[in-house]
Amino acid sequence: MTYPKAPWTLQGYALQTCQLLDAKKVRPFIPPQFELVCVLPGKTVGGIYVSHYGTGSVLEYSELIVIAGLVSYSGQIGGWVSHIYVDNADSVAGGRNIWGLPKELAEFTWEKQNFANTEYKNRLLVRQQERTLCQFSYNPPNFELQVPLSANAFSTKSDSILLFKSHFESHMSLIATQLQVPTESPFASLGLDHPWLTLCWNQLRLVVGSPEAVGLREPVVSQL
């Protein structure tokens, strides 16, 4: 498998949910080296990011990223990616070898049409073999605002704690959506299926930067 070196430039569109998550539920998904950032007592911020990167991208693929919460390490704050799925084997290899992200393969079905017995026009189904990871039902945006943004994320690779920055420009909008995360999904226990808002990113241009080692992982001491 071959994959491009960092940074990666990706172009396409995406959906992103945002919501408060129970700190006790997400803590098991986050390594102990990180401090969980709570914006309210017992609550952190997380969500799901799904995207399709097409023409103009270093690789063309769809992606599902689960942000289990905001974390802090060495004075920096960023999101913790607990689960990540793509439909391109080269993206799996690049994500694991460059950024230390736990990428896995999955199937993405994007449908844009009117569905009977529903108020939503579009749908995305993400599956891994016979298991459904999540399903989005959503409507296209009515109004868009062009914005530049940046975000930090943490990962771990071998003995290192990594920090990497993402910069993107896009037409952003709020959209109506319904998210379903069945109990069979590996991230169902995070409680992500009731987002308080969903953003749509159209004409997205995303640059994922090279990771920077900001610390060392503490060795796990077995309790005998």
Characterization of this structure:
This protein has helices at 23-26, 89-99, and strands at residues 8-22, 35-36, 43-53, 61-73, 76-86, 103-105, 107-112, 122-128, 131-138, 145-157, 160-174, 177-180, 197-208, 212-216. It is mainly beta and 224 residues long. The protein has a single domain, classed as Acetoacetate decarboxylase-like (Beta Barrel). The strands form two sheets. Strands 1-3-4-5-10-11-13 form a seven-stranded mixed barrel. A four-stranded antiparallel β-sheet has the order 7-8-9-12, with no helix packed on it. The N and C termini lie far apart (41 Å). The mean pLDDT is 94.
Strand order of the largest sheet: 1-3-4-5-10-11-13
CA-atom Rg in angstroms: 17 Å
Strand content: over 45%
Per DSSP, the total helix count is: 2
Q: State the CATH topology.
A: Acetoacetate decarboxylase-like
Residue-averaged pLDDT: 94
Portion of residues within helices: under 10%
- Number of E-state strands: 14
Structural class: mainly beta
Q: How many independent structural domains?
A: 1
Protein name: Acetoacetate decarboxylase
GO molecular function: lyase activity
Organism: Allocoleopsis franciscana PCC 7113
Pfam family, one: ADC
Itemize the secondary structure elements and their pairings:
Elements: E1 8-22, H1 23-26, E2 35-36, E3 43-53, E4 61-73, E5 76-86, H2 89-99, E6 103-105, E7 107-112, E8 122-128, E9 131-138, E10 145-157, E11 160-174, E12 177-180, E13 197-208, E14 212-216
